[in-house]
Amino acid sequence: MYSEQFSEDQDRAIDRALLAGIDRILLPNIDLESVEAMHDLCKRYPKNCYPMMGLHPCSVKEDFKKVLTELHANYSSRKYIAVGEIGIDLYWDTSTLAWQEEAFRMQIEWAKEMDLPIVIHARDSFQEIFNILDEVNDEKLRGVFHCFTGDLAQAEHVLSYGGFYMGLGGVLTYKNSGLKETLKHIPIEKVFLETDAPYLAPIPFRGKRNESSYLIEIAIACAEVYGLPLQKIAEITSSNAVSLFRLDVH
Predict the structure, then answer these.
(1) Which of 21, 55, 60, 246 lies deepest, with the highest CB count within 10 Å?
(2) Mean pLDDT of 56-79
(3) What is residue 53's DSSP assignment?
(4) Average pLDDT estimate for 211-218
(5) In total, how many domains does the chain have?
(6) What domain range is 184 assigned to?
(7) How far apart are CA 53 and CA 102, in angstroms?
């Protein structure tokens, strides 16, 4: 919501979210350049916008250690709800895998040291991420697989870690995604809803800029899968997010 894609109607977009009953907007960081815009939005909406701090895998370059050092310095002056968005992305560039893996491991250690959850970006990289989590997972580690689009076996692998949730985004509404079938086997106590704005807009907005108010469409799709009233879906998934990110103490 702090990206340039909202430069002309950022406040109106947030107003639309608030009017839709979505009053907590969780903001993952991307890189050094995104920090100021994210902080600015949180400053203007302190009761609604919650910042994370991390280096997105698509932003991991040769100088990633230097960048991580600068990003880490932010933790001494601000409170964050998570270390994110971190992970591995092999869709855009496979040549940086070793750097991405090292950056991922370093930021996992941050999370353990500061008792914060991690927000994982996994695109064409479930196995690579599982290889790392299988090694480092312990009682200190918790988090969410952001915009989960995996199959049942991958969902079960996520659940086996104990402290992890699956975030459901617009892909849940796509006819041929297969995600609804997978979701039938996932306890609702292990999922929550998200948009990935400005990307992955749900039906009927697919192909357009995504925004937080569209979360309602994902909730409706979730209600259809679980056979529960929309309000119940809202209550449970919101409670899951509050629990993971400890929003009640921020």
Answers:
(1) 55
(2) 97
(3) B
(4) 98
(5) 1
(6) 54-249
(7) 17
